[in-house]
Amino acid sequence: MTDIPLEVRSPKRRLGDLTFGATARGAGLLILLALAGVAVFLTLKGLPALGAKSADLDAHANFAAYVWPLVYGTLISAALALLVATPLAIGVALVVSHYAPRRMATALGYLIDLLAAVPSVVYGLWGIGFLSPKLVPIYEWLADHVGWIPLFKGPASTTGRTILTASIVLAIMILPIVTAISREVFLQTPRLQQEAALALGATRWETIRLAVFPYARSGIVSAVMLGLGRAMGETMAVAMVLSASGIVSVNLISSTNPSTIAANIALKFPESSGLSVNALILSGLVLFVITFVVNFAARAIVSRREVSR
Amino acid sequence: MNSTSVRRIALPGIAALVLGLSLSACGAGNESSSDDSSSGGGSLSGTLNGAGSSAQQAAQAAWTADFQKANSGVTINYNPIGSGGGVTQFNSGGVDFAGSDKALDASAGEIDAANKRCGADAIEVPDYISPIAIVFNVPGVKSLNLDPDTAAKMFAGKITKWNDPEIKGENPGAKLPDLAIAPVHRSDPSGTTNNFTDYLSKAAKDVWTWPAAEDWPIKSGEGASGTSGMVDAVTKGKGALAYIDNSQVGNLSVASIKVGSKYVAPSADGASKALSVSKPQTGRPASDIAIDIDRTTTADGAYPIALTSYLIACPTYSGDKADLVKQYLSYVVSTEGQQSAATAAGSAPLPDNLQQQAAQLIDGITKS
Amino acid sequence: MSQVLTTTEPVGRTLPLRRPRLPRWAAPLVGLVAAAASLLVGLVADWSVAGIVVVAGLLYVVVLPGWSLLVENRRSATDRLFSSLVWTALAIALVPLISLLYLVISNGAKEIDGQFLTYSMRNIVGSGGGIYHALIGTLMITATATVISVPIGILAAVYLVEYGGGSRVASSLRFLVDVMTGIPSIVAGLFAYALFEIFFGPGVKMAFGGGVALSLLMVPIVVRSTEEMLKLVPDELREASYALGVPRWKTIVRIVLPTASAGIVTGVTLAIARVIGETAPLLIIAGATTSVNTSLFSPQTPTETLPVFIYYSYTQPGLNPQYSVDRAWGAALVLIVIVMILNLLARLLGRMLAPKSGR
Question: Which of A39, A149, A161, B105 is 20 to 30 A removed from B76 (C-alpha atoms)?
Fold first, then answer.
């Protein structure tokens, strides 16, 4: 009987692992650094605006009064856009992944990606040229028939360039992002789960509800967060489509609409100089903080209901 | 990785790279040096960067094209980011010249900043004059006569229908329908708004009680972004009323304004006339000609709703740049230059007195 | 004993093996009837085409599940309802797409010819000229942004999924990347300008700066989508690889990334599509010009891109707006075609990189 010596060795630290791990961490740190840079930039350039006078603040008394209608407009337009886009995007993603035949599905996926290819300037032109005039009769109908709801009080805008129209344009802009990511996530659901559900006699919808959605929840939330970020930060299309008056208004279909922070910066920046530029940058910081808070809240809601895999 | 998969990835990548490089290696079809058939014997070469007013953009494009055709070694870039941005960049030394829809603001320290950048008094001369037209969309009505008070009331929302007796009084022959007036304003701050509100506040001061401003003072009603946005809004909105640069009027209906006892339609000559009877602002350095347009003039044929855009430059530049700037800006304010801009952009050529003053100042640009 | 209780009924009579089902031609029939009814009423009541289509759709979505509820059971009705809703969503999503494409193609197709694609706007006033300078600018700046953001994005996602685990750093990074998606594009441009101003002085106009500004907008999309795709790679694959003794980095590079490659490529394409159409940041950091610029790093040379060209051509058209506006639409069409070609190439790449799967 020979003794085989038992060597206790610490696990070999491969060079490849060390380098790769360090590179990955480095990439993460670089992103954090860039983000910190943006935050520092916004703060440094924005803080002087706190002492700005009314003339630089678009005739508002102080910065809070200046930025509040913009915050309201940003939140409303983003919320409306998400409300319209999310069910549509999930529906389209389901069609591509589960309902449509294979060939048709690839073609459809490509078509929806075509929406992402359109530059935001063209969305603005389409919004002014095609969508707004088409929505005018609908707004007039709303003002006539449900005008007692403050949302649709009217008088309806004659050109249709309202915050509701801008939100619809935003919804169409974020549709491809949410659809594409949802589609990829739905396609990756394990077939075993779906086939097991079908074997138990579930209808197609029940299969999706039982086997696909729980698996895809985190992906859908990511997709929606990306869409939300895009909606809140969209500059050009909103600046062109929205008839902005810079006041808070619940009325969704009139000519007097609140502007969004990003559109406001785009409209005012070219002609601004001095402290008004700082005010615009400070409003950018406010948008940053809002995105922070909204993401935080969304995460809190989702993590409470998340099913651990 | 086995060699086949490396090849499968590398090949298309290399193909794309080669394509991209070859694409960037050849220049544009119209930019080869042998192409400029009229390549002037310009010994000038170099790059000139300007920025500022977007109102001047079309004119600057015409001036740049003419100058580059005559001097093929020169490249001039004008970035129409807006007057505020242009002045800021000029004052920080970022561009060689700037275009601005309003003269340098002494109270905001802009004149001091510009002088500091130049090391001497900065040159500011008008180089672009454009009439501002009042346009509207009322089916069946091609033109209207309005006096300043009526126009002010319509824009302020004090007159709300097109068939109001006050409008009818000035236009007895027009078939005015019972349609609501929808005034449209610029949602982005602009020199057009500034000049229009300046006119309303001076010519209709009892009705229009707000001061001149780049931002429309009334926080309601339809807002459009840019002149093209205004044109779209008026074209599509029944009963819409707006103020736009005259060169973009196209097929829209235009209003004639009462000047003195006659109604004057917007025209380049009218704007020129209004400028020629206006006086320069006082209290500015000798090299700074900022004009206070006389909005209440009664001169025959003058159209006082006009926008003046300025050119801001330094009296000295280092090296070859001085000559380049001098030649280009001299062309800009010269008779041919102004005529070229009028053809391309619909502007009004500088009146003779202003043109001579400007040319004199620019002629004084020297090497530092 | 003969007292045996026998039942003559078979046991399974209360549980039939087959349930009543709607006939196979039920769905097309309902569709036809809904369309016909809506058309009839619409023609009489003088509705618009859009109104007729909407009412037909509503009828279909209500009648078919209703019929199913009566004949079949609740679960089938729900299934049919959601099927119709899902297909309706597709129809709704295709409407703006078709109208956008129609708008761009009808306005822009006539403008595209050899001269349009190979000439710049140098010395052009009025008609003529082309988009060559903007084309080169777009390709240069977008390529720069892609080269910067794709490696960083994918590596950061790898960190989040493979190395980060549940650590504080990883969750903060994930959270902050989400916040980064909300940066308005113009702020990214202002930041890049301020950054480059420190090194190159005021008035800096650099194509590379444009790439940096755009990469700020691209990175969050790349990171988030790659992260989701990596999370979907089954752990069994990783564990099998480790069991074979493959080092961690090799597992990630040779197993995990290729498995997720289709999704990663989708994410990258989305990000490119997002930034290739950006106007506002490039106005500030890359400027505008009518001549071709091929230099990436020259600090005072502006570069024009297609979206900036479209924006300026449309909003500042000069005295004869028709030429300028036509050029703008032609440029828009070229931009969309470029993105779709990139999309196709990306899908091919994704398919090449992916391991053979049963799908």
Answer: B105
